[in-house]
Design goal:
Elements (H helix, E strand, L loop, with lengths): L1 H26 L5 H23 L6 H24 L12 H9 L3 H32 L2 H7 L6 H5 L2 H14 L6 H11 L2 H14 L3 H6 L1 H22 L6 H11 L6 H8 L4 H30 L4
Helix pairs in contact: 1-5, 1-10, 1-15, 2-8, 2-9, 2-10, 3-5, 4-12, 5-10, 5-13, 12-13, 12-15, 13-15, 14-15
Length: 311
């Protein structure tokens, strides 16, 4: 078990090293807010969709279709369970802070943190399940998440279905179902762009952390309760709910890792968009990202132990 923990911890450490690049570049003035916005756009609208398409360039089979469908159904079911559970949290907080904390507990940084880690420790097999998790996240984050942050007036069916995550998923799943392979020159280009996800995502997260008030972050006890819920309660509940289902070990481990990812960057974006507590949002993203260097390896190994995954 110790060896497995060190394996995952070393991969998380590598991701944090890349985050350090973004942090230092921002602190030294070499990485501006405008640059951060442009790189984030590149990630969301080009790199992540390419990663999803490339991952799903696999032979079609009934077995793969069944496990992908099962993974999607489980992901949506877990989000529905979490949506009900977070209604019980932070009831005494101000109206502008309450939805930020609930959103931050429910939605993890799957695209920028979960996918790179799963790609590093579980490879292509794990990425197929991770992409299904990404699709489920996109559907819920742009529907329930928008309702949570912006209310009914902020909800948009168009945004729910017309966003970069859905575009990449539709293209990738469509090619998979049709059993089509991209021409070599196009497939290689998509693969190279998709491979940029891990380093670029980590640089973006590091840059975001550089602009946060770390002193205020570590002095706020409310953030610790939210971080404990996101990094411990949510993945533990996920692991226990899925355990009796006797899932494929890789699928089970992927779903637990995705549940254990730190608070999604969308928390800050949506809080800004819908005039919520932006300070709390930024601080929660920062605190959970820093703390996950300890919690992510623990839950990755725990999931592997629960399901008997041969690392």
């Amino acid at each position: 078990m110790a060896e497995n923990f060190l394996l995952v911890a070393s991969q998380v450490g590598t991701l944090f090293l890349m985050m350090g690049v973004g942090y230092v570049l921002t602190k030294t003035g070499k990485f501006s807010r405008e640059t951060l916005s442009q790189v984030t756009y590149l990630l969301m609208y080009v790199v992540v969709p390419c990663l999803m398409i490339d991952t799903l360039q696999i032979p079609r089979s009934v077995q793969v279709m069944q496990i992908m469908g099962l993974c999607m159904a489980l992901t949506l079911g877990l989000y529905l369970l979490m949506a009900l559970a977070v209604c019980l949290l932070f009831r005494r907080q101000p109206a502008d802070t309450r939805p930020v904390l609930r959103y931050g507990v429910m939605y993890g940084n799957i695209g920028f943190m979960g996918l790179p880690l799963i790609q590093a420790v579980l490879g292509d097999e794990g990425m197929v399940f991770a992409i299904m998790g990404q699709v489920g996240f996109t559907i819920f984050a742009w529907s329930h998440g928008v309702l949570l942050m912006g209310g009914k007036e902020g909800f948009s069916v168009k945004k729910m279905f017309f966003n970069p995550g859905i575009f990449g998923a539709v293209a990738g799943v469509g090619l998979f179902l049709l059993d089509l392979r991209l021409p070599a020159f196009l497939g290689d280009g998509v693969a190279f762009l998709g491979s940029m996800n891990s380093p670029l995502a980590m640089v973006v997260i590091g840059s975001q952390m550089a602009s946060a008030d770390l002193g205020a972050t570590f002095r706020n006890p409310l953030l610790y309760s939210a971080a404990l819920a996101k990094l411990a309660a949510v993945p533990l509940l996920t692991a226990l709910v899925l355990l009796p289902l006797n899932l494929d070990p890789v699928m089970y481990t992927v779903l637990v890792i995705l549940a254990a990812t730190p608070t999604a960057g969308y928390t800050s974006i949506f809080s800004q968009l819908y005039s919520r507590d932006t300070g709390t949002a930024a601080q929660l993203v920062t605190l959970t990202t820093l703390c996950c260097i300890l919690t992510l390896p623990c839950f990755a190994v725990l999931a592997g132990v629960f399901c008997g995954l041969p690392w």
